[in-house]
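# step 3/5: fold
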Amino acid sequence: MRTYIVKRILISIVILFFVTLIIYTLMRCLPGSYVETMAMQLATAPGSKPYEEWIAQLNAAYGLDLPIMQGYFQWLGEFLRGNFGDSWKFTVPVITQFKKVIGVSFIMGAISLVLELVIAIPLGIIAATKQYSKTDYAISAAALAGISLPTFFFATLLKLIFAVKLGWFDTHGLVGRNFAQLTTSGQILDMAHHLVLPIVTLTVISVGSLMRYTRTNMLEVLNADYIRTARAKGVSEHKVIYQHAFRNTLIPLVTIVGGSLPGLFSGALITETIFSIPGIGFTSYQAMTAGDIPFTMFYLTFIAILTLAGNLLSDILYGVVDPRVRLA
């Protein structure tokens, strides 16, 4: 196991090197950037230098006048030393802006993931054990509806019904108008109240695919020979389903759980934008559109590291869930 993990980590480092190189190259090739925008603003000031001179000065200040490979290794050296630079868009250190917005997105992602697992797995099992029944059709229809609904449409529908029509929630924002006057517990409840609709949106949109995935794998396991043998021996149906079948259904589900690690930190761009939630998804979008290379490079590299870690976690969990798998 130790040899396998070390080998995978070394391979992941090589993969991460090429991923960050591609990301940096793409960022350098963007048609518009913060530098060009800032140079245009500075050039319009009375008595200012020409636009071309501002471009040259700003490029030199940010190292953008270097060749791509030389600029990449300069960025990589600073990154490895823990110097992530200052965000051009938000005019604060990258890590400061990241810490400011990552908490909200993580809470939303974690709660929606837990709800997704709690809802989708039991319903998928029920649908599989009652195949072709009315219950199966109802669960399958609900799953397909969740898969088919666009995020922006469902989020807007929730706002229309529960915020505009019923007035149960605010239409946007993370805090209410009287947030500063509330106690600490009151502030927590106020933020939780504002996160209800975004979390419901993320859960409903994602629960359908996992529900169908669970049903399909459960049906495959229930048709296996050892399940028929267990039933022939008189093992109770409850024990057959939840002890023998469900344990083997967990094996492919491990991939889903391990792959969800980056999603906890990547944010939900559309949902955060519609509900005006200041999370990492909306913040990274603002940074990308502004050509904010330091923040975008840090964010995308962070997501790449989490993706590689999630894949490694999935492989390790495979060996834990299924003893037949030998990672060595």
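# step 4/5: annotate
DSSP finds 14 helices and no strands in the chain.
# step 5/5: archive (pending)
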